[in-house]
Design a protein that fits this description.
CATH superfamily of the largest domain: Thiamin diphosphate (ThDP)-binding fold, Pyr/PP domains
Largest sheet: 7 strands, mixed
Radius of gyration: 22 Å
Structural class: alpha/beta
Helix content: 40-55%
Distance between the termini: 52 Å
Length: 368
Amino acid sequence: MQNFSSINMKAGINTIPLGSVPEDTAIALYKAMLRVRMIEEALISEYHPADEIRCPVHFCLGQEAVSAALSFLVKDEDYIFSHHRSHGYYLGKNAPLRALFSELYGRETGANGGKAGSQDISYSDKHFYSGAILSGATSISVGTAFALKYKKLPYAAIAGFGEGATDEGVFWETVNFAALHSLPLLLICENNYYATYSPMSKRMAVENIAQKVGAFGGKNHSVFGNDILSVYMSISNALEEIRSGGGPVFIEVFTYRNNSHVGPEDDSYIGYRSAEEMAFWKANDPIVLIEEKLGADMIARLRPGFEHDIKTEIDDAFKFAKESAFPATSDWQMLNYHPETPLADSLLKEFASGNFNQDQKDHIPGPY
């Protein structure tokens, strides 16, 4: 299977034709990607110089296809777990924009009361959770998938992560366990080739992750992640198979991050990506490609109205966030302990550091 991140960039990339999905579906997917793009660009423009957003933010410009496809394919009862590049997946689970912006601004009306920020934002009413622990999305999702199967619920657990997460041993434990128990789990690896600044070629002897996943017995597919139609069809087919009891599916989505690893600042000065490479991927940007398929006349007719609607929504979210109050002084005890778990909280409070045996040679005494 060809790795789109290491192809001859002069050769170009083939995508599937527009007729592969209904035209109204293609238009809806286009608007969904445009919405994610405009939201991210608006947040980038507001981050500095105001400095009112005080949390680290990992933007997803260039990687909008997966979240756009998911927004039309997930059920409310499905679970999505995301890595730290969370905004697209949050929007893909159709969680409210006002709550996203308020969370980034640290306001009490945020999705998590202004206490989680971008990397760890969640919205439990929509069954969406993100986190900064590398490969955490995979290990939590497999437990959720196990629970769904155990309870005989007809839903899916979905994990979105980068290829850097596959450098972690827990990822392969997840793949093995999911395949062994035929769990309703969709693993989506957005392979943008770089783990922060480290290319795959410096980290893996064999770069084809999907092929390696197949060795564990799970179904696996590779897809060009900047072709929204290919992504949509691939995820749609995978979820249909999973919901019919077919077991887990792994999709390796070859895509590219147009922005810096973290924050709105440009990190190209580091020199980890060539100008030629970046120019190639911007020419094969997912929004550029779908606009080419839909045609200049249709885009000229549709895009102004789409942009107006999205900008209105963004302006409302900014206004709501900035006018919302900051959280009241927190009860830090309640952020760490809970009255419904007295035994666990007692262990957390009472375990003394003096009881810890650094040599691990003897039994460690403690209140358990």
